[in-house]
Design goal:
Number of domains of chain A: 2
Oligomer: heterodimer
Radius of gyration of chain B: 20 Å
Order of helices and strands of chain A: EHEHEHEHHEHEHEEEEHEEHEHEHH
Shape of chain B: globular
CATH architecture of the largest domain in chain A: 3-Layer(aba) Sandwich
CATH architecture of chain B: 3-Layer(aba) Sandwich
Number of domains of chain B: 1
CATH topology of chain B: Rossmann fold
Strand content of chain B: 5-15%
Largest sheet of chain A: 7 strands, mixed
Number of helices of chain A: 12
Structural class of chain A: alpha/beta
Number of strands of chain B: 7
Helix content of chain B: 40-55%
Strand order of the largest sheet of chain A: 3-2-4-5-7-6-12
Helix content of chain A: 25-40%
Radius of gyration of chain A: 20 Å
Largest sheet of chain B: 5 strands, parallel
Number of strands of chain A: 14
CATH class of chain B: Alpha Beta
Order of helices and strands of chain B: HHEHHHEHEEEHHEHEHHH
Chain lengths: ~325, ~325
């Protein structure tokens, strides 16, 4: 099978959906001729023109608001938010408007829009261009949240997001844009709420999101060399969350680590760990462990920044302790 | 009154629509005062000529976005009393099945995209609706209602910039009722409100919002031009809020006096003055106008009684409509 970059996969998904449905359009800063700073959208304006690939002023709340209104009245906007950190600028339009409109209208109005943005530290971009803020929006009922972990996932999830009748936020890891993965030529979609078991195992379950899936896979390889069999699961979407697949794995291996690049406190790792504790408690041989980003603003210095995110070695270390029974009284 | 050609039917419809708003609000206020309504609501009384003058220049295909003080826009755009009162009381037959309440009534069948409880929150939505119209080659126009208080929000300037850059068919209708919640507008608004729109190259007008014919006349002209791609436009409508910020804001002497209220209520009431004009022009007699009002007030009373007796939503509705359904067939390849 051919291999393409995550960037190319997103570009293909958008082009395919824009050919399929003329109500789909892209709006954001420097999305047309510039193709975004990450060049993910290169070539789209040449095919679809500036009427459907719309460059805006630097006005995130403004263009997010426009997208909500366009979506409510019959279009399917894909909003390009240059950095995930800028989500704080659009919180009212995303969380008070887009997320609640369907419910507040008693089901009469829909807001079928996609917010494309990114997450991920270690790009030496400091505290305002490095955050992983997906837990913030996952907290708000009415929004769906997808976290692609490869080029294949990014394409399939984007196509589903565009066809979904709800506001969907997709966070791409900005460090993975040039990572290649096998992506079929044929059209495919990846349904929301269906976790992917990347690797089966019996001793411990490693649940990872976005680029932390790669971290979990490398940790599993390190563990395999030591005779520890790790299962690796990618939830793909955290809203909706495929609880059943995660619980089934927890019941099987009896030990779970949840790895995510958002801040650890009050984050995605906490939510998933709690659900497993509540629903698989009897089956567990150890506390479900959370491994998120450190609870500090992302520092600029490489010497410091690299300390803030989970690593394969760190995950493998934690797994060894769990398997050895050292974390029963972890506090 | 503006010198516009209308027939008697148009005049009487505008009169009736203004009376409908006043009757709705008087009943809503009573529901609050008699503790029959959950929560609070914001009265539109006094501003009727704004909503009616504008909405009478629109079709059902034209859209509006509304505000927390939105009952007037909703009625003017054609909404039904029963479904509105049911919504105010949180009943299943309300426009939003009781999930929105006073501050979130949406009536898609008449192009009302909904009231909004965030001051200025719908400016992006209105402008986005206009962007969609332009992209899809539709000639509908969107009117964005907001108050003078909302001119302090940054979102207005972001979306007016884009609307002007892209010549979008949107009309920004600023209802300047003199008060930003509990504060005089002059204390929160520097410079001129219309000059802010003009800074973006948007044609801006400032008119008497108590004169329904003047409002309607100007809006008709601007809507026709917006349909031809000459938008956006901005209108400041000078009007007055008879009640406090909300129904519970009763002792308001600390921010405005009764004399000021009397000047507007007695001398500048949009319904009384338009009624006198209709009589003077021989369009209707005082008796005929009284009959119109009596009929509307009887309809409002019946709608309130209906809503009071109507059923609350079933408990099973609490987590319904969080997400819209997506037809699984559309998620298949080649669909």
């Amino acid at each position: 099978m051919r291999e393409i970059t995550l960037s190319k996969a997103v570009n293909e998904a958008l082009a395919e959906e824009m050919r399929r449905d003329e109500t789909v359009f892209i709006i954001g800063e420097d999305v047309a001729e510039a193709g975004t700073p990450f060049k993910v959208l290169s070539g789209l304006v040449e095919e679809f023109g500036t009427a459907r690939v719309i460059d805006t002023p630097i006005a995130e709340p403004g263009f997010m608001g426009l997208a909500v209104g366009a979506a409510m009245t019959g279009a399917r906007p894909v909003v390009d938010l240059m950095f995930g950190d800028f989500i704080f600028l659009i919180m009212d339009q995303l969380c008070n408007q887009a997320a609640k409109t369907h419910y507040m209208s008693g089901g009469k109005l829909n807001v079928p829009l996609v917010l494309r943005t990114n997450l991920g530290a270690t790009r030496r971009s400091a505290a305002q261009h490095s955050q992983s803020l997906h837990a913030l929006v996952a907290h708000i009922p009415g929004l769906k949240v997808a976290l692609p972990s490869s080029a294949y996932e990014a394409k399939g999830l984007m196509k589903t997001a565009i066809r979904d009748n709800n506001p969907v936020v997709i966070f791409e890891d900005k460090l993975m844009y040039n990572d290649k993965a096998p992506v079929p030529e044929e059209e495919y979609l990846i349904p929301f709420g269906e976790a992917n078991i990347l690797r089966e195992g019996k001793d411990i379950t490693l649940i990872g999101t976005s680029s932390m899936v790669q971290v979990c896979e490398r940790a599993a390889e390190l563990l395999e060399a030591e005779g520890i069999s790790a299962e690796v699961i990618d939830p793909r979407t955290i809203v909706p969350l495929d609880e059943e697949t995660l619980l089934a794995s927890a019941r099987k291996t009896a030990r779970v680590i949840v790895v995510d690049e958002g801040h650890q406190s009050f984050g995605v790792t906490s939510e998933i760990a709690s659900r497993i504790n509540e629903k698989a408690f009897y089956h567990l041989d150890a506390p479900v462990m959370r491994m998120g980003a450190m609870d500090v603003p992302v520092p600029f210095s490489p010497a410091l920044e690299d300390l803030t995110v989970p690593t394969p070695e760190g995950v493998a270390d934690m797994a060894r302790k769990l398997v050895a029974g050292e974390m029963i009284h972890a506090a | 009154m503006a010198d516009t050609k209308h027939n008697s039917e148009d005049y009487l419809r505008m009169y009736s629509q203004m009376v409908r708003i006043r009757a709705f609000e008087d009943n809503a206020n009573q529901l609050y005062l008699s503790a029959k309504m959950p929560g609070l609501t914001h009265m539109y009384s006094g501003e009727e000529a704004v909503a009616v003058g504008i909405c009478e220049a629109l079709t059902d295909n034209d859209r509006i976005t509304s505000t927390h003080r939105g009952h007037g826009h909703c009625v003017a755009k054609g909404a039904d009393f029963k479904a509105m009162f049911c919504e105010l009381l949180g009943k299943e037959e309300g426009y939003c099945r009781g999930k929105g309440g006073s501050m979130h009534i949406a009536d898609q069948s008449h192009g009302n995209l909904g009231a909004n409880a965030i001051v200025g929150g719908s400016m992006g939505i209105a402008t986005g609706s206009a962007l969609r119209a332009k992209m899809q080659g539709s000639d509908d126009v969107t009117v964005c209602f907001f108050g003078d208080g909302a001119t302090a929000q940054g979102l207005l300037y972001e979306v007016m910039n884009m609307a002007a850059l892209w010549s979008l068919p949107v009309i920004y209708a600023c209802e300047n009722n003199g008060y930003s919640e509990y504060t005089k507008t002059e204390e929160i608004a520097a410079g001129s409100i219309t000059a802010r729109a003009e800074a973006f190259g948007i044609e801006a007008h400032s008119i008497d919002g108590q004169d329904v014919l003047a409002v309607n006349d100007l809006t008709q002209k601007l809507v026709a031009r917006a349909r031809k791609g000459e938008g956006p436009f901005f209108i400041e409508l000078k009007t007055y809020r008879y009640h406090g910020h909300h129904v519970g804001d009763i002792n308001r002497a600390y921010y405005r006096d009764k004399e000021e209220e009397a000047i507007w209520k007695e001398g500048r009431d949009p319904i009384i003055n338009f009624g006198k004009w209709l009589e003077g022009e021989g369009v209707a007699s005082p008796e005929e106008l009284k009959a119109i009002e009596d009929e509307i007030r009887a309809e409002a009373k019946a709608a309130v009684e209906y809503a009071l007796e109507a059923a609350y939503p079933d408990a099973s509705e609490v987590d319904m409509h969080v997400y819209a359904a997506t037809d699984p067939a559309t998620l298949r390849p080649d669909a």
